[in-house]
Amino acid sequence: MVSVTVSQARRVPVVPKGFPITVEIPDKTAESATVADVKAAVAAKFPIFYVERQAYTVKGEKKTLADETTLNAAGIAEGGELVVKDLGPQIGWQTVFLIEYVGPLIVHPLIYHFPSVFYGGSVQHSLLQKYVYIMVLLHFVKRELETLFVHRFSHGTMPLYGVFRNSFHYHVLGGLGLAYSVYSPTFSATSPYIRGTIRNNPTFLWSWIAIWAFAEISNWRTHVILRNLRPAGTKVRKIPYGYGFDLVSCPNYAFEILGWTVISVMTNSYASHVFLIAAVYIEVVWALKKHRNYKKEFGTAYPKGRKAIFPFII
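Request: output the structure for the sequence above.
Response:
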């Protein structure tokens, strides 16, 4: 059996009078007991302070310890001390994704099918509006299905407040903003912006739809590659190869951006441009972070010529 003292990094609101405490881990030593064992022991004492809410550091240090880190590796001997931080209420990543993507699936049909509510009158939908409507719905249905059946998450949860921040991009920019702009009378079949212009030309529209379909299928293919790298129930990380990964670390983001670029070009809507700019910024930041993590984790084994998201550029 090994025992360890757990103190709090700051006030832990769910158990304000409980710390510091001493937890005992039976049938283990400092060489075999892990941070995950400490989390489980603390959660057993305070069930509301479940393991996903807990993050640990060694007293006097800032680096968060991984669950699999043993007490011995962390420099904690028998009777040593760890510091716990409350991460706040948590929500599963799968649930977060489902919430994010369902917003546009609700908003777009409402605005498209009930124009009198939003514009004060009927709208005779143009080919452009019809195609964009179908493309947006197919995209987000695809994302919901991928969340349920394709994605495997290395982290089980995230702070609950994050779901509101993450949903803004899809619910407001890609949902309300994009739908209200594109399905408005400005883009209708009778509008001078559409009638007699290239945006009412089937060849122009179908050419861009073909590029969009390529982007969507490619995005799905990269997600399947990433899924197959990680056996179910594990956090295994491997170097991805093939279908864009030989050029960049995150081709899934590049294909996602390509898909939204198509809609931005087809409509030339201010809302589509804003949504695209936000998407590019967010996904470039994510890609650079993942690229750095890959290089740090795999070192010289990671292909040197790869960029983060855009081949030969970033």
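The first helix runs from residue 35 to 45.
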